[in-house]
Design brief:
- With 59 residues, the protein is mainly α.
- The N and C termini lie far apart (57 Å).
Length: 59
C-alpha cells in the first residue's frame, strides 16, 4: 500500500485555490429530480413487468 507524505509546513501558493462547486440552479434541481423519478419508476416497474411475463408464459 502506498502512503504519501505531504509537507504542510509551507503555506500554499496564493494562486492555488480550492475548487468550489457553482451554486445549483433551480432548473438543474428540477432536471435532477425528474431524472431520479424516472429511474425510480423504471426500477419499480421492471419486476412487475417481469412477473406478468412469467405468469403469462406459465399460464
Amino acid at each position: 500500500m502506498a502512503v504519501r507524505s505531504f509537507d504542510l509546513s509551507e503555506p500554499q501558493s496564493p494562486r492555488l485555490r480550492g475548487l468550489e462547486a457553482p451554486p445549483v440552479r433551480r432548473r438543474d434541481l428540477r432536471r435532477l429530480k425528474q431524472r431520479y423519478a424516472m429511474v425510480g419508476i423504471v426500477t419499480l416497474s421492471v419486476p412487475f413487468v417481469a412477473a406478468l411475463i412469467v405468469l403469462g408464459a406459465a399460464h
